[in-house]
Specification:
This protein is 0% helix and 47% strand. The protein has 123 residues and is mostly beta strands.
């Protein structure tokens, strides 16, 4: 069974950094584009960024460009989201997802989702 499990969520102060991980079981991540999404309370889910199966190409939402980095380690079957210069508006539940499409930033193009990990940016 395909499973994605996120980890690394925490409470962090504004301006701080956090690294999230997405681990896969039941399939190999290197066959898929992997995306990160987030959802704040009372708001719709939004895309954060994604990485192509090869790991060579990435794509980001404008709100996180220059601050967040998606990377993958296919040997470990994991994908990471490095978040720097965090802001209060980055607070939310972060999800990783797998897609057979190339670098999608639309949730409906992802077929497999993790359960999410909470990130809270607050002083």
């Amino acid at each position: 069974q395909l499973q994605l499990v996120e980890s690394g969520g925490d409470l962090v102060q504004p301006g701080g950094s956090l690294r999230l991980s997405c681990a896969a079981s039941g399939f190999t991540l290197d066959d898929y584009s992997i995306g990160w999404f987030r959802q704040a309370p009372g708001k719709e889910r939004e895309a954060v960024g994604c990485v192509r199966s090869s790991g060579e190409y990435t794509r980001y939402a404008d709100s996180v460009k220059g601050r967040f980095t998606v990377s993958r380690d296919n040997a470990k079957n994991t994908v990471s989201l490095q978040m720097n210069s965090l802001k209060s508006e980055d607070t939310g539940v972060y999800f990783c997802a797998a897609s057979e499409f190339v670098l999608p930033l639309t949730g409906r193009q992802y077929g497999w989702w993790g359960q999410g990990t909470q990130v809270t940016v607050s002083s």
